[in-house]
Specification:
heterodimer, A: 251 residues, mainly beta, 11-stranded mixed β-sheet, 10-stranded mixed β-sheet, 2 helices, 12% helix, B: 234 residues, mainly alpha, 10 helices, 0% strand, elongated
């Protein structure tokens, strides 16, 4: 079946389409507000971010500076980073306490590699890469994936209610590592020579130890919990997943 | 008369200038009080030394003025060190705190014994209240969970449910103001935690001593409370 429009109608249709596109693009440009700020920082800086909803991406760079880039959807959140003795605090929850309805705020944060990051959001993804500092904490109150890659921190805490958790990094000797999800897959990708003491609990799904399984490990509660040492067992690793699976992969 | 009073009289006692009755009283006290007897020996030694070496030193030019200066300094020091004068209308706590306590060894020992007995009793009662019976499995769950045998899992669940009901009520009050997306996200995640709670309860009903389920139940209930608290402020 062919649709045929007379020439005059075709011209007016094209004009209408162009006009629609212009307004649509202008609308989306006004709907999203982009803010970028830069702060001087030492090498061992600490970043705290408490977001309402939206994605959080933390990357490292070579400069001794922190750069925050926020893309805020309308109605845009108030955004007032506060410099402290140790670093930077961004508390979107406190800054927007009396506001009923606000749009997502998506953050991209660039920091020196030796930084510590403490990130929290009510919903949205958190992604952290190449942090070598003391602490990496990523907490999603409800739904959102957490991806920690190239992380080599002494303390790592990652938790969400719904969503996957992926960790690709190393465990420091004497370090503490906790991963917890309500529903989603927790995957830890580790180097073959890593050493840790493990308590992994998954009451509903399987715990797959892959090549990290050894005879010294204990299966408790009909396999719902695995306790045991891998390598020197000097890092402490706790993994809990209420309804999802736990996977260990060797790099 | 207490030791402080007897020691005030020691100098005169050593000099032999006390009235016969006072002299006898001090002597009787010194025979039973080791501390005052030692103080008497010290005063005696000082007085004896001074008597032996009398005349070996030049007399100070104005003995009276020197003594007055020393006396004034002692008065100033003792005034600053002495406790605050207690007013007649002061409260019992103020009086108690500003009272000068001087206890003999038997009194001190009795007081220490009473304190030890009372603390032991409170500790015992407290531990029993928490359910540390000493004969249990030895493995205690973290958080609100007391050991098995004292409070059943259902009782614990009921206790935690009361806290949850309180926060749930607060969330429900605010929920109408949330946008539909937030309501949906919250409900979806709450159902995930509820599933974990229900699964653990089911496991525990089949095997009441299932440690893994007990810990998961505990953790899930705590997570639920935390999530409700977080969203109650919205």
């Amino acid at each position: 079946m062919n649709f045929y429009l007379p020439t005059r109608n075709r011209v007016s249709f094209a004009a209408f389409s162009a006009l629609f596109l212009v307004f649509a693009l202008a609308g989306s440009a006004f709907a999203q507000q982009r803010v970028s700020r830069q702060y001087p920082a030492g090498k061992n800086v600490r970043i705290e971010l408490k977001n309402l909803s939206g994605t959080i991406t933390v990357e490292t760079w070579q400069r001794d500076e922190i750069r925050i880039t926020a893309s805020m959807e309308a109605p845009a959140v108030h955004f007032n980073p506060r410099q402290t003795d140790t670093g930077l605090v961004i508390d979107i929850v406190a800054d927007n306490r009396d506001r009923r309805d606000v749009g997502d705020a998506n953050f991209k944060i660039q920091v020196p590699a030796r930084s510590s990051v403490d990130l929290e959001t009510r919903s949205g993804q958190i992604s952290v890469s190449n942090i070598q500092g003391d602490l990496v904490r990523a907490h999603v109150w409800t739904s959102g994936d957490i991806t920690l890659s190239g992380v080599n921190a002494a303390r790592v805490f990652a938790s969400n209610t719904t969503g996957n958790i992926f960790f690709d990094g190393e465990f420091a000797s004497g370090g503490t590592y906790e991963f917890k999800s309500g529903q989603g897959v927790i995957t830890l990708r580790l180097p073959a020579n890593c050493g840790f003491r493990l308590v992994a609990t998954a009451p509903a799904k399987k715990i797959s130890m892959g090549e990290f399984w050894n005879k010294g490990m204990q299966l408790l509660g009909e396999g719902r919990r695995i306790i045991g040492d891998v390598g020197d067992g000097r890092a402490s690793v706790t993994v809990t997943n209420y309804q999802g699976q736990i996977n260990f992969l060797r790099r | 008369m207490n030791c402080e009073k007897y020691q005030d009289l020691l100098s005169d006692f050593v000099d032999g200038s006390l009235a016969p009755e006072d002299h006898k009283n001090v002597e009787t006290h010194l025979s039973v009080c080791v501390v005052c007897a030692e103080a008497r020996n010290d005063v005696g030694a000082i007085v004896g030394f001074c008597l032996e070496h009398r005349g070996e030193y030049d007399a100070v030019p104005n003995e009276r003025a020197l003594w007055l200066r020393i006396s004034n300094m002692i008065e100033v020091d003792s005034a600053s060190a002495s406790p605050t004068a207690i007013q007649a209308n002061a409260g019992w706590w103020f009086r108690l705190m500003n009272r000068s306590w001087q206890l003999s060894f038997p009194q001190l020992a009795a007081a220490a014994t009473v304190i030890i007995v009372v603390v032991s009793m409170f500790t015992l009662v407290g531990l029993r209240g928490l359910g540390f019976t000493g004969g249990g499995s030895g493995v205690q769950s973290a958080g609100f969970v007391p050991p098995l045998g004292v409070v059943s899992v259902k009782d614990r669940y009921r206790q935690q449910e009361q806290v949850i009901a309180y926060w749930n009520e607060r969330v429900e009050l605010n929920k109408a103001r949330w946008n539909p997306q937030m309501r949906e996200t919250f409900d979806k995640n709450m159902s995930v935690i509820d599933s974990a709670v229900n699964d653990s309860m089911r496991q525990l009903s089949q095997n009441p001593h299932d440690e893994v389920s007990e810990e998961i139940l505990n953790a899930a209930l705590n997570d639920k409370v935390e999530l409700l608290k977080e969203f109650a402020s919205l």
